[in-house]
Design brief:
Distance between the termini: 47 Å
Number of strands: 26
Strand order of the largest sheet: 5-4-16-15-14-6
Number of helices: 27
Strand content: 5-15%
Bound molecules: iron/sulfur cluster
Largest sheet: 6 strands, mixed
Helix content: 25-40%
Shape: globular
Radius of gyration: 26 Å
């Protein structure tokens, strides 16, 4: 076995390919070094196949939205290679849930040089990355002692369970195991929202009502019934890559009727690549202005669906404007220049803002207005702007104005809906702490909690915070350093140990966040764990129940979160209460049987583990968003105060009147374009003339899989720059560049391409922060350039609103 394990480890990458902190000055940002070329890896895999003797089902459990089953081949307890779902004929409706290049690389994640082996405690300054191996007893004693100290000294609300999505699909481990324990100990400070969808999730309930699923729109299967598909920044080819996910359904739908497709995006994404009918590049942060100008055309040319607006909506014109609204406070007046700003939202007005010619805006509006039905959709990159809440609501005005709602072939303008198979979860109990912070405000809750209220920082469930965050519980997340905005500012806050006193990190690898741990715990990977998972949140119409059985024994001294929490519970005398006498595997089996009582069509657990995932298509009646409302609005009212679609929101008018907003921040009852800080109109453009946006790369999922070296070789990191901007700076494709603003600097190679519009640069998020001795990042890390200033309404992450300058390094 040792020989096999040695072979497996050496078939991965022997050398740490990621530059150690403080040693990177003058080096290339991401050096693949002696990474095996892809061809060599394939040969290695083929040779291994001949020696296989066992196949076990598992899954890729990261935050891409899908959850691809994997068949893990092992010999003598060592992974030889990994296959995807390859059952059946792969016909749409019973399609294989094929894994992408990331899931197929999971062996390289498991046998990775960065893999954490033992519990460790910090011995240097926080963040230096100096650790000492300790026993599990010492680790668990320390954690229990620090939890007790924090609770006794400050209160349970000083313990923060932090966002993390590196291991996304657990139902009985990870976050569930952690929160079950913390609730038994008296609770913790919770967050609401998330880094992916914070702004759209907060904004759209004002239009369409709450109480709906997280991804609310029509399924992408409805595209097949549309005459026209309009996509604002939606990019499933790079974000929803599973063979059982949205991209497969999207392509199947588009191709089934050759649906005309228009994509509006500053970057020509892989979702296009010749598959689109038309690409319309747009300046980042200006989508709402484009929509307003199209509304101007639709209204003036009388292509709006007046009957729909009158029956189903509030605030389009005087007839449906709430009594509390100001005169001419309605949408029509705002668009025609009769509202508070007196500006007609003409195509010429929008052309100057968006960079799209007025003629094109008119043509686009007419096409959308006349297409019946039109499926209009947005991705979530748009809402990651300083005016993201406005933009996400504004885009929804196109289907609303044209009546493309609740019918076959339509979408509400939101992200698409998806089917999630209801798999049971470990009971977590109840958190007695009711006041929650927005997910993005945790650094504020460390150093200025006393200033934070519901009206300044959007606290929910309470009006103030009694305590600052003193203890961070980070399970499988790289948010604490890498994935939160403004890494240099975050480091400054975390480095002051008098503020947050203790950081606990559970991880598989030595990530930038792991380096900031006080106690660092080696978590087992999903390949070493039991679980029954569902299909995720971006799998289109295909639901699934996916078995995970350990393919290999836990490596080194790694343990599951359930086992770790059991050990902590024992130190509080709560072990029996925590486990209820069950091992983790027994919980998995018991919860599965509970599910089968409600879903008797699902096979036995033994059959599931032998035969592989159970698949089930979504019922037809849940695929069209707001279908019931459209058919019968009286008996199926929306969750808005009026029960209708609220173009004018009285709730937002109240927030606008009552909240204390920083200068420049705007909340409005109507969805409208707002010029923001660090837009292309900001005077700061004299110093930093380029707008920098982020995107999701196929080569990793956020920061997960970043340390798989051959993925770095397959999908290289680079900052995208238009040839005109490159030429003006004497930059050629492949040159090492420095990208900087007042918040930080990163080094990354150039990708010079007409696939990005002039004046805009694009850099994939998720690369691991790797500062040199001079403190400058050599890792191509996006978040050294982003800001901790939050958006007005959700107090979310405006990570795509950045001004930068770029030059040769
Ligand atoms: S990253 Fe997503 S699409 Fe790729 S294998 Fe994993 S779950 Fe599937």
């Amino acid at each position: 076995m040792k020989k096999l394990l040695d072979s497996a480890l050496s078939s991965v990458i022997k050398r740490r390919t990621f530059i150690k902190w403080g040693t990177a000055a003058g080096s290339a940002a991401v050096v693949v070094g002696n990474a095996l070329p892809l061809k060599a890896m394939a040969t290695d895999s083929t040779q291994a196949k001949a020696a296989e003797d066992k196949v076990t089902w598992s899954a890729c459990m990261v935050n891409c939205g899908s959850r691809c089953p994997l068949q893990v081949h092992t010999k003598d307890g060592v992974i030889t290679h990994v296959e995807s779902d390859n059952r059946g004929d792969d016909v749409y409706g019973d399609h294989q849930i094929r894994a992408c290049l990331r899931g197929r690389s999971i062996k390289q994640r498991v046998y990775n040089p960065d893999r954490l082996k033992y519990p460790m405690k910090r011995v240097g300054k926080r963040g230096e990355g100096r650790f000492e191996r300790i026993s599990w007893d010492e680790a668990l004693d320390t954690i229990a002692r620090q939890l007790k100290y924090t609770i006794d000294t400050y209160g349970n609300d000083a313990i923060y369970y932090q966002y993390g999505s590196g291991t996304q699909g657990y139902k009985t481990d990870g976050p569930f195991a952690s929160k079950r324990l913390l609730n038994m100990l008296g609770g913790f400070l919770p967050y609401y929202g998330n880094y992916s969808w914070g702004q759209i999730q907060r904004a759209l309930p004002f239009t369409y009502g709450g109480g709906r699923p997280a991804a609310f729109g029509s399924f992408t299967s409805e595209i097949a019934n549309a005459e026209l598909l309009v996509m604002f920044g939606y990019n499933p080819a790079e974000t929803r890559m599973s063979g059982g996910g949205e991209i497969y359904e999207h392509i199947n739908s588009v191709n089934s009727k050759n649906v005309r497709t228009i994509i509006i995006d500053p970057r020509y994404t892989d979702t296009m690549l010749g598959k689109e009918s038309e690409w319309i590049p747009i300046r980042p942060g200006t989508d709402a202005a484009l929509v307003e100008a199209m509304a101007w055309v639709l209204i003036n040319e009388k292509i709006v669906d007046e009957a729909f607006l009158e029956k189903f909506c509030v605030g389009y014109d005087e007839k449906t404007l709430p009594a509390s609204a100001p005169k001419n406070g309605h949408y029509k007046a705002h668009i025609l220049g009769q509202g508070a700003d007196g500006i007609g939202k003409t195509p010429e007005w929008a052309a100057k803002i968006t960079g799209i010619p007025a003629k094109k805006i008119i043509q686009l509006a007419r096409e959308i207005g006349r297409a019946k039905p039109a499926y209009i959709i947005q991705g979530t990159g748009i809402q990651r702007q300083a005016n993201g809440e406005q933009a996400s609501r504004a885009i929804c005005m196109l289907p609303i104005l044209t009546g493309n709602i609740g019918l076959a072939g339509t979408n509400t303008g939101e992200m698409p809906g998806n089917y999630g198979f209801p798999v049971k979860t470990l009971p977590m109990g109840t958190n007695p702490i009711k006041t929650a912070i927005p997910f993005f405000k945790w650094t504020d809750a460390i150093h200025r909690h006393h200033e934070m209220t519901d009206k300044t920082d959007a606290l929910q469930g309470g009006t103030s915070l009694k305590n600052p965050i003193k203890f961070i519980w980070q399970y499988a997340g790289n948010i604490t350093v890498n994935q939160h905005s403004d890494i240099n500012r975050t480091k400054e806050i975390l480095s002051d140990e008098s503020l947050c006193e203790f950081i606990l990190v559970f991880e598989n690898h030595m990530t930038p966040t792991a380096r900031f741990a006080d106690i660092l715990l080696p978590d087992i990977t999903t390949i070493e764990n039991y679980e029954v998972a569902s299909n995720g949140y971006a799998s289109g119409s295909l639901g699934a129940v996916i078995p995970l059985v350990p393919a290999i024994a836990p490596m080194y001294e790694c343990r599951s979160a359930y086992d770790i929490c059991t050990g902590i519970a024992k130190r509080f005398g709560l072990e029996a209460q925590y486990t209820e006498g069950k091992t983790h595997e027994q919980w998995v089996a018991e919860l599965y049987e509970q599910m089968r009582k409600e879903q008797p069509q699902v096979p036995t657990l033994a059959d599931l583990r032998r035969d592989g995932p159970y698949k089930q298509l979504a019922p037809k009646h849940i695929r069209i968003a707001l279908e019931g409302f459209r058919k019968d609005p009286v008996n199926n009212p929306l969750g808005t105060p009026s029960g209708k679609i609220e173009i004018y929101s009285e709730q937002l008018a109240t927030i606008a009147a009552e909240w204390e907003l920083p200068e420049g921040d705007v909340v409005t009852p109507l969805p409208q374009y707002v010029t923001t800080w660090e837009s292309h109109l900001d005077p700061l453009t004299e110093k930093y003339p380029l707008q920098l946006i982020g995107f999701h790369t196929k080569g990793r999922v956020h920061s997960t899989y970043h340390n798989v070296a051959f993925l770095r070789e397959a999908v290289t990191d680079a900052v995208w720059l238009n040839p005109a901007d490159a030429q003006a700076r004497g930059i050629k494709d492949g040159d090492m560049l420095k990208v900087w603003n007042d918040r930080g600097e990163t080094w990354v190679p150039a990708k010079v391409s007409p696939r990005i519009m002039p004046g805009v640069a694009a850099l994939a998020e998720g690369a691991w922060y790797a500062p040199g001795k001079d403190g400058v990042d050599r890792g191509g890390s996006f978040n050294v350039l982003t800001t901790q200033r939050s958006t007005p309404l959700s107090k979310g992450n405006p990570m795509h609103t950045n001004l930068v300058e770029i030059a040769k390094a």
